[in-house]
């Protein structure tokens, strides 16, 4: 039950603050490791592109944004060297968006940094408390907890 010292609106704000802290720490470390241009939304895009690539239209659907918005982000990530456009071998009329080695490296490093950040939280809060927090969040969140449409959802 919500109380004056623990109002209902505080829970989503605290969850968002925890998320923001992890993401800010991730990007500070990625910058130190040679990826200063990666931004939080870029991680969702790289995940949505995946190991086999995708089209800009499919990318927009996965992200919950328009094809044009997805295309602008792809343009930026191509310019930064994280993505490339290639002919689709199955359909000459289509272009695929694929990760470059730099994009793959960024995702690999992100995974390793997230492990380090989780370890830091466990060292501060205790391994059992972090595991319990994760278990509780899994219990409360829908099964498709990792949804790539966050950029579109935040954008309205």
UniProtKB/TrEMBL annotation:
The keyword DNA-binding applies. It holds the Pfam family MarR_2. It comes from Micromonospora eburnea. This is DNA-binding transcriptional regulator, MarR family. Keywords: DNA-binding. One of its GO terms (molecular function) is DNA binding. InterPro entries: HTH_MarR-typ, MarR/SlyA-like, WH-like_DNA-bd_sf, WH_DNA-bd_sf. Gene3D superfamilies: Winged helix-like DNA-binding domain superfamily/Winged helix DNA-binding domain (1.10.10.10). Residues 1-142 form the HTH marR-type domain. GO terms for biological process: response to stress.
């Amino acid at each position: 039950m919500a109380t004056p010292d623990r109002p209902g609106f505080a829970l989503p704000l605290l969850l968002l603050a925890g998320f923001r802290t992890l993401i800010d720490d991730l990007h500070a470390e990625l910058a130190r490791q040679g990826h200063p241009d990666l931004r939080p939304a870029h991680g969702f895009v790289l995940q949505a592109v995946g190991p086999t690539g995708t089209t800009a239209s499919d990318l927009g659907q996965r992200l919950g944004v328009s094809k044009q918005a997805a295309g602008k982000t792809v343009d930026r990530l191509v310019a930064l060297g994280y993505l490339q456009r290639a002919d689709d071998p199955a359909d000459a009329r289509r272009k695929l968006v694929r990760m470059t080695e730099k994009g793959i490296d960024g995702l690999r490093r992100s995974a390793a940094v997230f492990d380090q950040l989780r370890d830091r939280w466990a060292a501060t809060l205790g391994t059992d408390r972090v595991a319990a927090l994760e278990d509780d969040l899994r219990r409360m969140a829908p099964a498709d907890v990792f949804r790539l449409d966050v950029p579109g959802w935040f954008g309205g």
